Amino acid sequence: MDKILQAKKLIEEADAIVIGAGAGLSAAAGLTYSGERFEKNFGEYIAKYGMTDLYSSGFYPFETSEEKWAYWSKHISLNHYDEEGLELYRDLYDIVKNKNYFIITTNVDSQFEKTGFAKDKIFEVQGNYGEFQCSTPCHNNVYNNKEQILEMLKEQKDLKIPTRLIPKCPVCGEEMAMHLRIDGTFVETKEWHKQSDAFYDFLNKNQDKKIVLLELGVGFNTPTIIRFPFERLNKILPNASLIRVNKENFEVGGVLTITNPMNEVFSEWKKQLT
Fold it and tell me: Where are the domains of the chain?
């Protein structure tokens, strides 16, 4: 509890807060990629393909595009279109809504935007479930996929979608892909660069102020995006404090590490800040 209260004081006194959010935040909010939720919704895929979780299944080498898009339409619908703003994210919004904040996240589920965070204060580094891009890619635009995804979900049969529903690039005619940083074909759009510039501009403008680096549920899948940069910023910025909330973490010098469940931490912060 002492660490939670210490972190609360740092947040309360901060001139700026940079939230770095990883998969652990969404998992704590209920968007788990394995276990009961996965088994309940993907039983047929487990039986047919031997899938074990929603993360690794995203790399499954389907034999046909009809099978691949049947899977992805279900995956995206479950984790993006079926889910409204989740309570844990709403709690976080209540904690920082009146502060000077910016968010960098590897999550692709749009939970920040769904729960009230300003879109122009969010940098989604790894893409977004709600977007398609050309698989080649022949250009750097992305396309909202809601209508197509929901139609695939509705029309699929025997774990396949009709061939006519395979999404095609409107420019070159090649198959579309999810706008997710899975490999080197990920497109960094004008909007992506705008988000990136806004993030680094925020850091530059607040580098000499009391700045809290609030790292939430960040593991070691992509540590070079949030974890390692936050540790470096914590060392080089004169008035920075790094708060790391992650139940699976070990202590690191100079980092205020909190291993309590995230809902418990946020609940206490909300209580103390109101």
Answer: 1-31+85-126+186-274, 32-82+132-180
| Beta strand 122-124 pairing with 142-144 | unpaired
To the question of pTM greater than 0.85 for the whole model, the response is yes
Collapsing DSSP states into helix, strand and coil, what is residue 17?
Answer: strand
How far apart CA 163 and CA 110 sit, in angstroms, is 29
Residue whose pair of structure tokens reads 């309570």 in the numeric block: 87
Other CB atoms within 10 A of residue 185 CB: 12
CB 72 within 8 A of CB 51: no
CATH code that applies to domain 1-31+85-126+186-274: 3.40.50.1220
- Residue in 77, 84, 53 with CA at minimum distance from that of residue 129: 77
Q: pLDDT tens across 44-82, in order? A: 999 999 999 999 999 999 999 999 999 999 999 999 999
